[in-house]
Specification:
single chain; 184 residues; alpha+beta; Aminopeptidase; 8 strands
């Protein structure tokens, strides 16, 4: 499956490329960017590994998170999109929608905009019947974005590697279609 480039009013979501590493290192060095689940920043080396794994998963999984580009500035301001949540085997098989944005770009509806674009593509072009989204209960902002997108809690569990509580939410194709009909 080809990883899409998605364009919204304010954003471009496109597959990561090796030349994104510099901007990604800056983003990942921001402690709040990775607060959930790491409780701190990633090093440059960790970020380089993250980028390699992300691009490899485009091929192996057919899905993968994408660079989020601010349309006005052209800067990488985070990442978002669809990916297989390998870290939580109990929900597999599944595709998850997720997002992370630089602190200066939070609170403006950009996570919702990026998440909606990814979900819409997943249901219209990606052939998905169900999408999950996973968050730590303390991450209230992400939980609100999920609820705004129509996701509903289906499971409370624990991150097998870190021991944190997790809430798994879900949106089915049927519920997504019903929401779209109501919004028309």
């Amino acid at each position: 499956m080809r990883i899409p480039t998605l364009v919204t009013d304010r954003l471009i979501l496109r597959p990561f490329a090796p030349e994104d590493l510099g901007q990604l290192v800056v983003l990942h060095a921001e402690a709040s960017f990775w607060w959930y689940p790491l409780r701190g920043p990633m090093t440059a080396e960790q970020t380089a590994g993250f980028l390699v794994r992300t691009m490899e998963r485009y091929e192996s999984d057919g899905f993968g998170i994408e660079a989020v580009i601010d349309r006005l500035s052209g800067a990488v301001i985070g990442w978002a999109g669809l990916a297989v949540p390998h870290f939580l085997p109990e929900v597999l098989p599944a595709v998850e929608v997720g997002w992370r944005l630089a602190g200066t770009h939070r609170g403006r509806g950009l996570a919702t905009e990026a998440g909606q674009a990814a979900v819409d593509w997943g249901f219209t072009e990606g052939g998905l019947a169900r999408i999950v989204s996973i968050y730590e209960p303390e991450n209230v902002a992400s939980g609100k974005v999920m609820a705004h997108l129509g996701f509903e809690p289906v499971l409370t569990t624990t991150d097998p590697d870190r021991g944190f509580g997790l809430v798994v939410t879900e949106l089915t194709l049927e519920r997504w279609e019903a929401r779209r009909r109501r919004q028309e």
